[in-house]
Amino acid sequence: MKIIETELPGVLIIEPKVFGDERGYFLESYQAQRYAEAGIAGPFVQDNLSFSRQGILRGLHYQYENPQGKLVQVLQGEVFDVAVDVRLGSPHFGKWTSAFLSAGNKRQMYVPAGFAHGFVVTSETALFSYKCTDYYNPQAEVSIVWNDPDIGIQWPLNEQPQLSAKDSAGLRLAEIAVERLPDYRAGL
């Protein structure tokens, strides 16, 4: 497997080793020892799947209690995947990185705890998988508005994305109370 570091320390792109022939292909989507050696220690306690249509944007989400690291990949289709550093005191606070993840390129992205995460579907549909290092805690979840001008994500969109009610009501990063932000100095 190949590990690609992004401009945000801790956010990694993983290219699994693919063994293929005329019958199809095989790859290891996760192997604890190999991923731990790459800096993705887990443990992972929850797996999730989401299915979405083109133009649907999910995020930007994080939890200030029970912060989740996420190992994400696309099983069908393609998404533009984004991680934003929201750790108070981080030298990269408010910065973002992105990657196109698809069933074709088989890439994964690791988004550490303390980062907001979101994606927009760029194919007709997408089946999105993610492994989480902590359990979902809806009472501690925060949604940052997808088009926060202070973050400035360059989404590959030709029109307004389709959002959930929760994501439509997202806050700008500057509007979030400091007690609801992960603390970089505390090791997140």
Quick recap:
By secondary structure, the protein is mostly beta strands. The protein is 5% helix and 40% strand.
Largest sheet: 6 strands, antiparallel
Quantity of strands, as a count: 13
Uncertain stretches of 5 or more adjacent residues: none
Straight-line distance between termini: 26 Å
Describe the structure using short key phrases.
Jelly Rolls; 5-stranded antiparallel beta sheet
Question: What does this protein look like?
Answer:
The chain has helices at residues 32-37, 165-168, and strands spanning 2-5, 12-15, 18-21, 24-27, 46-53, 57-63, 70-76, 78-85, 96-102, 108-111, 115-121, 125-132, 141-143. The protein contains two helices and 13 strands; from the N terminus they run E-E-E-E-H-E-E-E-E-E-E-E-E-E-H. The radius of gyration is 16 Å and the shape is globular. It has a single domain, classed as Sandwich (Jelly Rolls). A hairpin with a 6-residue loop joins strand 1 (2-5) and strand 2 (12-15). By secondary structure, it is mainly beta. It has a six-stranded antiparallel β-sheet, with no helix packed on it. Strands 9-8-11-6-13 form a five-stranded antiparallel β-sheet, with no helix packed on it. The model has no long low-confidence stretch (mean pLDDT 96).
What is the element layout, followed by pairings?
Layout: E1 2-5, E2 12-15, E3 18-21, E4 24-27, H1 32-37, E5 46-53, E6 57-63, E7 70-76, E8 78-85, E9 96-102, E10 108-111, E11 115-121, E12 125-132, E13 141-143, H2 165-168
Antiparallel strand pairs: 1-2, 2-10, 3-4, 5-12, 6-11, 6-13, 7-10, 7-12, 8-9, 8-11
